[in-house]
Structure formats: structure tokens, C-alpha cells
Amino acid sequence: PQSAQRASSMQEYENSMAPLRAAKERIEQVARDQLNALDPIAMSGDDYRRQAEDIQRERMTKLGVIDEQLKTERLRFTGGQNMAPAGDAAVYGGTTDGFAPHFTGVLPPGSVAPADMALDVY
């Protein structure tokens, strides 16, 4: 019963995330197509730079909006905890919170910080 509920919840989560992931893929593809359509030989260097920068800026703005929507969906499904449901780590590059690995400043009890990590001691 509980595993069926978990599977149902995971499917609902995946269904809510799929359109957002697809939108990110479409945004990336459109930006690639736009950049590939530019003709650096026929254009002046300044025009080429300006148009390429405009395309990249638009891409990053749109991706930022989608990332916020993804974060909102994750929070909705995790009750406010910024973590993806179990089993979703592969979608986010191996992390379970959907973001690049980061150090929160708090180590679990009994763990040791890597030697190359600078820790402020107060």
C-alpha cells in the first residue's frame, strides 16, 4: 500500500516535471538553431557578437524562469524541503536536491570535512 502510494506520488511528480524539462530542452535547441543561423562571415564582428550575446541572454533568462518553476514543483512535492523525491537523483546530475553539489556549512554528526575544504572556526 505505501509503496504503491509512493510510486503514484513519484509518477505525479514526474508528470509535473516533464513539461518543464521538455521546455528547457526546446529552449536549448532554439538557442542552438539561432546561433547556428548567424553568419559570422557576412556579419560585422560587432553585429555577430551582439546577436550571439542577445541569443545567450534570452536563453539564460528563459532557463532561469524554468529553473524557478522546477524548484517550486520540487518544493510542492517535498513539503517545503528542497529535495527531489527518492530516485530522481540521476535527473539532476547525481545530486538529490536538483542543484550542483554544495556545502551548507553543516556536516552530519561523525563526518569529516575533506582536507581541501576551508572551514571557518569561531
Poorly predicted parts: 84-108, 113-122
How much of the residues is beta strand, in percent?
under 5%
How many angstroms separate the termini? Answer: 49 Å
Summarize model confidence as the mean pLDDT: 75
- Overall 3D shape: elongated
Spell out the helices and strands N to C.
HH
- Sketch the major β-sheet: none
Could you please describe the fold and organization of this structure?
The chain is mainly α. 57% of the residues lie in helices and 0% in strands. The protein has two helices and no strands. The protein has helices spanning 2-37, 45-77. Helix 1 (2-37) packs antiparallel against helix 2 (45-77). The longest helix is centred in the first third of the chain and has 36 residues, at 2-37. The radius of gyration is 20 Å and the shape is elongated. The model is unreliable at 84-108 and 113-122 (pLDDT under 50).
